[in-house]
């Protein structure tokens, strides 16, 4: 068999991301509208097949999101519940909100466990199936791809297999494209998943079956892989495994396993290219930055310790053969070898990042060595460029000697005053004063804002002389702060998200023991990036 024939023989696996819906149930995580738009961009960059955006009608943010956001390549999916008993599909607000959302597909969850139907819903088993059938038929009639999440499927199958299978058949017969088997409480073992999926596959085609695993026993990835081996062809999961309780199946771990490991890579293909796979570490860390949390060092494939080895017998062996203690080459997933000096792996990552910004350098260019050294020095001080691509772009141009000098901030001052106004009301007034030099021209601007960072942002953009028209559509969208070291002298990292009239969004970073100066650095670089972008247009 030729390589081309072997590639054609591979079965397609489909990746369904539910970070913005199921992942949003993670304790301590609240996605803003801007967060959801930014996560969608990361998912498109990764190359997943489906993006489940949320639950229209459930909250204001999800309603706004489906109004303002679209996916470029992924199937944009709305989530809802099958129609309630005693109502028609047309009179069920939840179903209608999902069907009326601007999306390509609709995923409805229904109870596939006879016990859950009786106890939680309090309706007959037949009525539950009828509600499912009518909901799926209405989805198909609305011109949307229909998906059904079979809630409590594995527990339901173990207690009443006939009803669980009838639920699956009803969904399929009504026109569902995908019927997704859910391990809702995360308690099923991989061997059980494999056996049950094997039985279900006898009555339902595998290319219509999906798996949705939770991680309550730490086996969501294992359960998902077991389900794939047994027949399912759609995989549901989240970025970095976030989700309620202990989380969901981690797509960041699943994707490279499916793409690189024997038994999967030789049998299946996924919609993630080798270039996108090499961006995996950057995407994972950018997502953690967006969540304002430190990446887990020991995360498989993408953690900073994933390919790290201390000096000693392992280091000695690695010096002779890197594959001895590495199950895959780290550069395939965009990570790097962490043993003594990791210059080569670091260079390959930098070259890929530079290429993304249209900067071509040769591997032997001495400026690349200087840039690598600068990046590592700054990361040691608290910078993180995985989630701040615009700042990396500016840093690269600075080191390469190609950074334009648009303006210089000679000084700035912010003040916060808490006082009573003329009506005796207690108010907080924040003001910023900025002196900017453009060539021989010195400009001074004063602005009030909602806090020192907002005031500083407004003052910096208030009068930029000849550049004012070029930043007229620039807007600060989000602002996140993380304390890197404890104590009163803590190092503070600030991440600023900006956008302009073209719809492009970018992130800049600032690090300092002073939160205002860290914010200033990020704001300054955001404006510089906008000016460079407009100059190139």
The proportion of strand residues reads 15-25%
Indicate the mean pLDDT: 91
Structural class, from secondary structure content?
Answer: alpha/beta
Q: What gap, in angstroms, lies between the N and C termini?
A: 49 Å
- What's the gyration radius in Å? 26 Å
Total beta strands = 16
Proportion of helical residues = 25-40%
Q: What is the CATH superfamily of the domain at 13-249?
A: Aldolase class I
Pfam family, one: LeuA_dimer
EC number: 2.3.3.21
Domain Pyruvate carboxyltransferase: 13-278
GO molecular function, one term: (R)-citramalate synthase activity
Task: Walk me through what this model shows.
The strands form 4 sheets. This protein has an 8-stranded parallel β-barrel, surrounded by 8 helices. A 3-stranded antiparallel β-sheet has the order 11-12-13, covered by helices on one side. A 3-stranded antiparallel β-sheet has the order 14-15-16. The chain is built from 19 helices and 16 strands. By secondary structure, the chain is an alpha/beta fold. The longest helix is centred in the C-terminal third of the chain and has 22 residues, at 515-536. Among the domains are: 13-249, Alpha-Beta Barrel (TIM Barrel), CATH 3.20.20.70; 313-400, no CATH class; 414-463. The chain has helices at 3-9, 33-46, 60-68, 93-100, 114-121, 125-141, 153-159, 161-174, 190-200, 220-230, 251-260, 274-277, 280-291, 313-320, 343-356, 366-380, 389-400, 452-462, 515-536, and strands at 11-12, 14-17, 50-54, 75-81, 105-111, 145-151, 178-183, 209-213, 234-237, 268-269, 408-420, 426-438, 441-449, 475-483, 492-499, 505-512. Residues 311-316 and 339-345 have low confidence and may be disordered. Helix 17 (389-400) crosses helix 19 and helix 18 (452-462) packs parallel to helix 19 (515-536).
